User: What shape does this take?
Amino acid sequence: MTTLRQYLNSTGCDDKLADLIELVAQQAKPIREAFISNQEYVDSENIYGETQIALDKWSNEHLMKIFKESNLVKEAASEEEAEIVKFPDAKTDYALTIDPLDGSSLVQVNLAVGTIVGVYEGSVMQPGVNLRAAFYMLYGPLTVLGLTVKQGVHLFALNEEGDYVMTERDVRIPEGKLYASGALKKDWLPEHARFIKYLEDEGYKLRYSGSFVADVHQYLKYGGLFSYPAYKGKETGKLRLLFEANPMGFIVSEAWGRISNGKKNLLEIKPEKLDHRVPIYVGSRGVIEKMEKEYDI
Ligand code: F6P
Ligand code: MN
Assistant: This one.
């Protein structure tokens, strides 16, 4: 049985990075507890004009407080904050991106949601290829941690003693046959519609939950292609480069999969602003290479 700390120590990564990952991963407990007290919708909108439920806000504020007290984070960009938050007393150079509660519309119906974290050195305004580490906590029947410190992807589960224990070492995404596409079908652009039709004709099976972190976790395990495309009226797509696409794409790429914006490796895109949106194709390597080669998306 390998605990998260034992694994991190074995990688030879910086102690401060190990402390930071462990600290954030431990916040799964208070966040899960808050599911009971912070469920209701509140009369407010987040900075992108979306209805914000109390739990998003709570998770964001909680994580920001933990970052500040830890002195392990130099700056943090959050999906719930309009500006980068700086922590001048930090003793490290780590810059974090967080999606405090991805898939939050599913909280009301008790489906899996999660927290997504990207760790950079210096600044968050860098392409995803520069990530130093990326991980997510998925709040399903179990609390699962998916992590890479650029030495493969490993899965852990939180046990009753409150320790993360490794459940799967060196995850490799298979060339599986699941598919998903966000946005209304009537708004799909022709190239995307053609590609989805090709997948259906090839016997791919639809799996889409409405929680990006939970969907990508499933694709990591079973393989296939998850997409949230550019669509009529929103050619940038819906999902966010910094908070969603880069950390999850980095993890999938470390597991031998790929992430693309339809044309090239999404991890090479330099963010232009915090709210940079991108069309996303993420999953098994073969199907993404085929899409880039044969469909001009
Ligand atoms: O954070 C955005 C998000 O909630 C993702 O987790 C999810 O994949 C997507 O939006 C769902 O969007 P839609 O409701 O348009 O399918
Ligand atoms: Mn999100």
